[in-house]
Amino acid sequence: MQNVAFILIGLGILVLIGWLARGFFMAAEISLFVRVVVGIVAAAVVMLFGIVIRDRIAQAKKDDFKEVDK
Prior knowledge:
The protein is mostly helical. Helices cover 79% and strands 0% of the residues. The radius of gyration is 17 Å and the shape is elongated. The model has no long low-confidence stretch (mean pLDDT 86).
C-alpha cells in the first residue's frame, strides 16, 4: 500500500510540473528546437530518477540484514 502512495505522489508531482511547464512549451517566442531539447532533457532526468528509485527498491529487497534497523 505504501508503494501505491509513493507512485501516486510521484505521478501528482509529474502532473504538476507538466502543468507549470505548459507555458514554456506553448510559448511562440521560444524556438521549437529549444523546446524539444528541453523536453528531451527533462524526460531523460525523469527516467534516470525512475531507474535509481527502482534499483534502490530492488537492492532493499535483496538486503541480507533483515534484523538491522535502517
